[in-house]
Request: fold
Amino acid sequence: MTEQEIEDGKGLAIISYLTIIGTIIAYFMNKDKKNEYTSFHVRQALGLWAMYFILAWVVSGLDSWFATFGFWLFFGVLFIYGFVNAIAGKDQTVPIVGDLFQKWFASLGK
Reply:
């Protein structure tokens, strides 16, 4: 990716981490432009949100304060990591699961 491509896609990449609605907005706004930097971060954010909702459902059934705290801490760190990378203009995957998200959602933005 070129510096110009990163600068052009940085705004939508940042928006993609704000909420699931932000991810959807960034996806549709990037659909015509096909900016690879934005597509990268949309795939990361979409994967994080999907995993968030699935694991939230599982953790809610445990009725444990420790599980809930660990869940929020885990996702807080991953979302902050992705958000900071989007701001900094880096295309680093989020730890542990980011490479899987790139593979699973490879068709998004292409």
Remarks:
- The longest helix spans residues 36-60.
- The mean pLDDT is 94.
- The chain is about 75% helix and 0% strand.
